[in-house]
Structure formats: C-alpha cells, structure tokens
Design brief:
Shape: globular
Order of helices and strands: HHEEHEEEEHHEEHEEEE
Number of domains: 1
Radius of gyration: 18 Å
CATH class: Mainly Beta
CATH superfamily: Acyl-CoA thioesterase, double hotdog domain
Strand content: 25-35%
Distance between the termini: 29 Å
Helix content: 10-25%
CATH architecture: Beta Barrel
Length: 325
C-alpha cells in the first residue's frame, strides 16, 4: 500500500509550512500502517542500513509492524509525497484522489503517464479504504492490479475514485476507477488486503490520514525514476535502491515504488512501448536492496520477478505486465 535514491528531496525542509509538514506526517502514518511484508517470516532486528537515522531501532518484534514516528526530514522527503496526489472523501465508503500530471510523471520521451504512478495512487486509495474497515488492526497488501483501456497520452489531470468490492472479516478488496480531466475513463485498478497476522499491530490512534492528505504534495522536479534512483542495468533488468525516502516504517521498500522498477524492466525489454496492464503479487519485503526486476518477454506480455539482491536474491514480487501494441 501507500504506503526510497540518495538524492535529497526536492521539497527540502517543510518545517516552516504547517500544511506541508502535516501532509508529510500523514504520508508517514499511511506508509507505516500498511506495509508489504511476508506473513510467514518474523521480522528480524534492524542492523546497519536498516537503523533509523538517529541510530535507534524501529520498535519491532516477531511479526510486529512498527508504528514509531520518524524524524521530520525523513517524513518530509518521502518520494510519494512529491507525486502531487490529493485525497478527499467522496460520499459513503468512497475516496477520490486528484493530481496534475507534470512531465516528470510520464514515460521518458513520451506524453504517456506512467502506469506505475497509477499503481502507486491505487495502492494509496485502496489502502486507506482498507484502514477504514480493518482498523484499528493493520491491513497488509497482497495484490495490486492496474488495467488501462488506452495509453494515457497527453493527460493533464487524473481523477481516481475508489470504492470497496469485498468487505470480510479478514479479507478486503477495493477498486479504483481512473479518468482524465475530460471525464474520459482511463482504466481500473484493484487492491487485495488481509489483516496482519500480528494481533498486536495497531493503527496509530488519533490520526485521520484522509483529511491530512487533502492538500497535494510536490512538486516533483526531476523524472520519477531519477528521483528514486531507479536505473536500467540492461535490456529487461532494472534496479531500485533501498533508500530512506522510499521506505515504509518497517524499513522495507514501498510497494508502490516496486511497481516502478517492474515498469522500468519491461520498458527496457520492450523499448518504445508503454504498459497496458500491471499485476503485482507481493511475496516478501525488500529489506536490504537493491530491488532488482528481471523481465522475460513473450510477445506483448512480460513476466517480471523482483529479487532482494542484498538478501540472497530472495523473490519479493511476482508480476506480469502487458504493453500496448
């Protein structure tokens, strides 16, 4: 869910702006509340790069999701806070997100909005709906899918509307409809969540992240891949470093940003294309990094595996993507 390169955030220090500072804190609450992690593996104590900036360990035990408040600089500089996405409630059990689309969010060399950006926004909205239903228990993302009707070329603004699909005792599913500034339907996304198996994991009390995300963040001043340090190593292979401004509070790489490294691997294998669909299956977290995505192409379909390279190449994500022909 909504839940980061060594380059400093383009936002800089936002402590002098109460609204931007509040938004940064809200983003951090979301990220710490809905991490992508494995359910069968206890979290280990943090060491080395997994330590907080002040040298303290995040509060974790076996299977425990950290709800420790991060330092202001880390909150303010999170990459997802720069995508310009504003969230409001749109009636009962519905959320709406809107964002202007600058060149930095488009596939390089094109006017097409990145599908991975839509995936990150879908993760945010569906995760917030899951929190509404499952709170105070913590929801964990299992699947995230995006399907587009046509390439979102020349789109100036995106409007995303999210609603629940299934509300169960331990499973929650939601869908997101995307449209442009002319109300032209772009496509749909869906997210699947389960309640964290740790009964002690709880959402932070007294926080309403939807209200605090009413103001858009940003601006993003460099292309998204450059901003987060995502690089194409070769045709069909891309890598995303584990950096402070792309993590959830459990200290693992944010799931929305993992969609970007998958997209970059596919675009490297099939140059001149853009993604028509993207399906993410979160198997394990990327704890060490870099997250390395490798795409195997079958016509217009790519099968992508994301490994945590610094953690004995364990498989973190299994994904499939289809490109527009």
């Amino acid at each position: 869910m909504p839940a980061a390169p060594v380059r400093m955030s383009a936002l800089g220090n936002v402590r002098g702006d109460p609204r931007r500072a509040a938004r940064a804190v809200a983003w951090r609450k979301i990220l710490e509340a809905t991490p992508h992690r494995d359910h069968d593996e206890p979290l280990r104590p943090l060491r080395g790069p997994d330590r907080d900036r002040d040298g303290a360990h995040a509060a974790r035990g076996p299977g425990k999701v950290s709800v420790a408040e991060p330092a202001d600089d880390r909150s303010a500089g999170h990459a997802l806070n720069e995508l310009g996405f504003a969230v409001t409630r749109a009636g009962v059990e519905r959320l709406r997100g809107t964002a202007a689309i600058p060149p930095e969010l488009r596939v390089p060399g094109t006017s097409v909005l990145r599908t991975s950006v839509l995936a990150a926004w879908a993760d945010t909205l569906t995760g917030l709906l899951a929190v509404d239903v499952m709170g105070p228990r913590v929801p964990v993302t299992l699947q995230l899918d995006v399907d587009l009707h046509a390439a979102p070329a020349g789109v100036e603004r995106v409007v995303a509307t999210a609603r629940p699909l299934k509300v169960g005792r331990s499973v929650f599913a939601a869908t997101v409809d995307f449209a442009d500034e002319h109300e032209r339907v772009l496509g749909r996304a869906s997210g699947l969540f389960v309640v964290s198996p740790d009964p002690g994991a709880r959402m932070p009390a007294g926080v309403n992240p939807v209200d605090q995300l009413a103001e858009p963040g940003g601006p993003l001043r460099v292309p998204l891949a450059d901003r987060v340090g995502c690089v194409r190593r070769s045709a069909g292979e891309a890598a995303l470093p584990r950096r402070d401004d792309g993590l959830n509070a459990a200290g693992t790489v944010n799931g929305g940003l993992l969609a970007l490294v998958v997209e970059e691997a596919v675009l490297g294998a099939l140059p001149g294309t853009t993604l028509a669909s993207l399906a993410m299956r979160y198997l394990r977290p990327v704890r060490v990094g870099p997250a390395v995505a490798t795409a195997v192409v079958h016509g217009s379909l790519a099968e992508v595996t994301v490994h945590d390279e610094g953690r004995d190449d364990v498989v973190a994500v299994a994904a499939t993507a289809r490109v527009f022909s």
